Amino acid sequence: MSLPPEKASELKQLIHQQLSKMDVHGRIREILAETIREELAPDQQHLSTEDLIKALRRRGIIDDVMKELNFVTDSVDQELPSPKQIVAFDKQSTLKKTNIDPTRRYLYLQVLGGKAFLEHLQEPEPLPGQVCSTFTLCLHYRNQRFRSKPVPCACEPDFHDGFLLEVHRESSGDGTRMADSTTMLSISDPIHMVLIKIDIFGETTLVASYFLEWRSVLGSENGVTNLTVELMGVGTESKVSVGILNIKLEMYPPLNQTLSQEVVNTQLALERQKTAEKERLFLVYAKQWWREYLQIRPSHNSRLVKIFAQDENGINRPVCSYVKPLRAGRLLDTPRQAARFVNVLGYERAPVIGGGGKQEQWCTLLAFLCRNKGDCEDHANLLCSLLLGYGLEAFVCVGTKAKGAPHSWVMTCGTDGTIMFWESLTGHRYIHKPTNPDGSPLAEQPKPLYPYRTIGCVFNHQMFLGNCQPSDAVETCIFDLNDESKWKPMSEDAIKSVCAPGATTSLPPFPPLCASTIDASVTSNEIEMQLRLLVSEHRKDLGLTTVWEDQLSYLLSPALASYEFERTTSISAGNEEFQDAIRRAVPDGHTFKGFPIHFVYRNARRAFATCLRSPFCEEIICCRGDQVRLAVRVRVFTYPESACAVWIMFACECAS
């Protein structure tokens, strides 16, 4: 492998800097003097290079240098493509092997342990190999996402992770020049930190969500600072401390010139002041808009017109800020596949202490994705963002379902005037055809198939419209959003002032989606083996033997693939081949029964317990008779963020 001359000189310079930093030359001189004094005979005046290298190796000097100098090599026969392949090292050698570009600015964030997580004060020390609840820290900064290693839950959790954040990125439109302190001071993006807890059953809980202001490091000596971050709870516990993290921030390469702390504090104070003023003006406008809306019809007071919503930290934010065009890259190919992805993310209402109805909590996107589940509003906001990313005119609708329960769903408006409702919790789509309340009783009216009853408002990242039609019933609603006699709009400029990207520093940036880390084949096999064991044990308890038919199990695969394809595309395909294969496989005089079921989690025991609650499935699993053969097939379909659809099919054949 050959290096260009400029790269070779750059590499030599880096090695020379490191050797000087470790004072290797001084240590070599000492060992040289010591070796001559101790090991050379009086008549021997010459010390060979080999003798010196042996002495250096014996005293561990060469090992020390090699530990300090790390090089990333992808493969021996590859050319070194760019300076990004050179490894960085800091004064304490905290940066290990990593790809880095010496011409870019990085922030190295280290989490050096936690303390005062008092909820886990009585938590016993986990035994080696014992399954225990764990904490995981998730970070997002300027389109980069990171995840810490899981650590056992404890009063003082043993977090020891480092994250290399690129502050200055060409993809963010920052140009090619290395950013100086003044340039970085104008980068107001915070580091969003989300702490999740995963219990021994694999259930994920959101513990804390924190926005770290990192720019204090620009005013610190040597560009290094240590912070103590107090994490507050979420939802109803947003005023309660859950624990403290010790964090070290370090700029790399080190800053040639640091700013005074006063300059940094002044900049941050100005940004806060500007944000507060924009938010105050929007609040004044929103109050005026609401007064005008009530003047149209006093009954509007009871409609679900939601202008602000509380996030997981209890902060009121305009609903339009929860939606933004989101591109899924190559992770999702179609809008319907995006709807399926959102549908397989778990549904969970915000936890509430005691009774008294629903606790409101609209999560920021990172918090929703990290815990892999959320309320209907979280699903609707994500689906609307993805559909906007696909170039559709999409809105989140706020209203009620059949029994009057508040609900959110998504609506798209076609260029031909077609109104389509998307249910984000199920992936179902419904075409809306309004009924005419003044029409003749004999005239045939379209029968609505959707579960929605009333609608109060619709919104996306640029528009907010309140429903001001005489009735808020969905079935009679006209979705001509340009007609101000039917929909009262908010000023787009007012929305833009607080919801446009970069408009305010309090606006959480949207993270990119991450590819799945689940191996679908391995996971399918694991769940299938566990289910076979559970079925055998269950039948043994009933005094029944179990014989598995592997070929029949394999023949169930096309059916499971067909079911998932139908969920994703709304097109049914492949059933004829499946039915033909089953007819050929089941002997004459035998009966075949099959039971497919779908889950969005990978817990085999929980899935089995759910299956047994179905009388039809229990009949298959507990089948009695002559020549009973059982089959089970599991197929896991993976989606971004490690979400997955798990299809299971139990089947049996027995003599009639």
TrEMBL record:
Domain CEP76 C2 residue range list: 99-256
Quaternary structure and partners: Interacts with CCP110 and CEP97.
Annotated gene: Cep76
UniProt keyword annotation of Transit peptide present: no
GO cellular component: centriole
Family: Belongs to the CEP76 family.
Residue span, CEP76 N-terminal domain: 10-69
Protein's name in the database: Centrosomal protein of 76 kDa
Lineage of the species this protein comes from: Eukaryota, Metazoa, Chordata, Craniata, Vertebrata
Protein location: Cytoplasm, Cytoskeleton, Microtubule organizing center, Centrosome, Centriole
Keywords of this entry: Cytoplasm, Cytoskeleton
InterPro entries tied to this protein: CEP76 (IPR052299), CEP76-C2 (IPR028926), CEP76_C (IPR056288), CEP76_N (IPR056289), CEPT76/DRC7_peptidase-like_dom (IPR056290), Papain-like_cys_pep_sf (IPR038765)
Superkingdom of this protein's organism: Eukaryota
Ranges for domain CEP76/DRC7 peptidase-like: 360-490
Any single GO BP term: regulation of centriole replication
Purpose: Centrosomal protein involved in regulation of centriole duplication. Required to limit centriole duplication to once per cell cycle by preventing centriole reduplication.
Stretches assigned to the Centrosomal protein of 76 kDa C-terminal domain: 517-654
